[in-house]
Amino acid sequence: MVITEAKNEPFPLISAQLQENVAYLNKLLGVGQGPGHSWDIMAKSFNFSELSMMSYVLNGYFLTMNMVLLLEDLEKRIQMFVAQNDSYTLQDLINYLNTNVAFVQVQAVPKMEDVVRFILSGPLVTLVDGFDVALLIDTRIYPMRGIQEPEIERVIRGPRDGFVETMLMNTALIRRRLRDPSLRVELMQIGTRSKTDVSLMYLEDVVNSDIVNTVRERLQSIQTDTIAMAEQSVTELIGDVKWNPYPIVRYTERPDVAATALVEGQVVIVVDTSPEVIIAPITFFQLLQHPDEYHQYPMVGTYRRWIMLIAAFITIILPGIFLLANFHPELVSKQLSFFKADRTDPLPLWAELIVAEIVIDVLRIAVMTSPVTLASMVSIMAAIIFGQFVSQIHLLQPEVLVYMAFVMIAQFSLTSYDLASANQMSRLFILICTQLGFAFHMRALGFGAGLAVWWVFLSTRKSFGIPYLWPLLPFKWKNGMDNVLLRKPFSNIHGRPGILHPKIQKRDG
């Protein structure tokens, strides 16, 4: 056997000579001591009866006492098997161990590539002298934090369990809510170096096969060395995002939201090491829905849904309307006089709005990145300096502070942080268009043109082939706009989003 030196060379076959396999793996994985070696990959040789073996396991992926008990049982079972059989194959041994070893999974691994992948994934992999197949016993216990309440999609009433960084636990949280035999969980690895586990989940008898095939093919076609940024890396690689600020998938930390999406005919992508799962495809209006709406009575949930819709559009157009009203004060009625700025400052009004936007973002980032012990102090300093003295030194007008603070509150009220950030980019674009319209003496044409460009941009976007503004464009009322505007009683929810073309349209069928 030739030891592979370059990472891009193909993996060799598993040799029947144990020492050749050990030499190759030790060289490839850096097993040993001293510089250039990895201390966390454990290699332990065993001699059970007449069998010489070398076992590899990743430190930190098992409990020591469990491993000791397993090895003791394994030694006893192998000795009993060898004593009862004069000739046998490794598959015969595996079949015997599957029946007699008190552990969940024992399987054969015929390829060296899979041997390496499994060693780096955590199971106990054993190579036996005289056999060209490896033995795998899944002893993994993933390091993980406890299940906690989601940080973003909080509810007043409802479940408090949220996803964690372990894919196995995340799929189990969804399975707990969907005990459906048609629920499929396909496993794949992404990244030539990271080999990150990714699961594609869907209801086979509900979801449109074209959607599943599209997402699966895009996941499998990813060519990258690592997806260290987890769900964001996967989204950008499969969604052809480029410079589009609007999210084409929905992220959620809540198992109930993911389970609901599966029932409606969407797919869920679970990326290991991420506490958020990806829901695709989605629309603009789905990003505005909040799980708390479904933990309140329908009328209250409908009212909240309207508030969210209004807040979303306020974050986009309010600064532009404020600027436009001050460009043409003669068009502002007495009832809307609160849109007028009362004084003239050194900076033009459009510059004050942008300065306020930047300052608020700086303060937000400062609070996010500051240690917990300093975050409150940063907030207090910001409230004193920004709230009291900025107006006194004529940097920003009080009206600018009021409107930008209202816009930021509306922005933070949105369920999707990605949608809120995209709306901020649109807000700045419309603000600049409004100012250019005034500079070139086109009155309100600049604001109107900016709003039109934003609308055309959204109306031409798609999420995995689904129109982004559906059910508004193309318009559909039943199982469309009625679900956008109304939080229906559960007894009245019978259909699935028609744009997804699910195999079963009725929810109760």
Automatic annotation (TrEMBL):
<keyword id="KW-1133">Transmembrane helix</keyword>
<keyword id="KW-0812">Transmembrane</keyword>
<feature type="transmembrane region" description="Helical">
    <location>
        <begin position="53"/>
        <end position="71"/>
    </location>
</feature>
<dbReference type="InterPro" id="IPR050768">
    <property type="entry name" value="UPF0353/GerABKA_families"/>
</dbReference>
<comment type="similarity">
    <text>Belongs to the GerABKA family.</text>
</comment>
<dbReference type="GO" id="GO:0009847">
    <property type="term" value="P:spore germination"/>
</dbReference>
<feature type="transmembrane region" description="Helical">
    <location>
        <begin position="400"/>
        <end position="417"/>
    </location>
</feature>
<keyword id="KW-0472">Membrane</keyword>
<dbReference type="GO" id="GO:0016020">
    <property type="term" value="C:membrane"/>
</dbReference>
<dbReference type="Pfam" id="PF03323">
    <property type="entry name" value="GerA"/>
</dbReference>
<feature type="transmembrane region" description="Helical">
    <location>
        <begin position="374"/>
        <end position="394"/>
    </location>
</feature>
<feature type="transmembrane region" description="Helical">
    <location>
        <begin position="429"/>
        <end position="457"/>
    </location>
</feature>
<dbReference type="InterPro" id="IPR004995">
    <property type="entry name" value="Spore_Ger"/>
</dbReference>
<feature type="transmembrane region" description="Helical">
    <location>
        <begin position="306"/>
        <end position="327"/>
    </location>
</feature>
<protein>
    <recommendedName>
        <fullName>Spore germination protein</fullName>
    </recommendedName>
</protein>
